[in-house]
Design a protein that fits this description.
alpha+beta; Alpha-Beta Plaits
Length: 96
Amino acid sequence: MYIVVSKWSPKPGMADEFKSRSVPMRSLMRGMPGVEFVHGFVSESGDPVAIVGYRDKDTYEQIVNAPDGPFMKALADHRLEEVSEWVWSERGESAD
């Protein structure tokens, strides 16, 4: 399994709007073939974090990095970048 942990930062005054857009996006991602799990939480510092498990790295690449792939379409449809900025992601193969 290939796991990705991503930190986002809502734009000033947009935290509630980010939440209202990100919850349905995570639900949509849960239904994508090859997505094993999706979890979101707010870190102790107050930043939203998403954890997504993909079947493998190739599946991740097809879903997330393809310019016309399902993640880019979902990102545009939910307009997350209007209300937040992606800060960073850590990625890697599961150790267990």
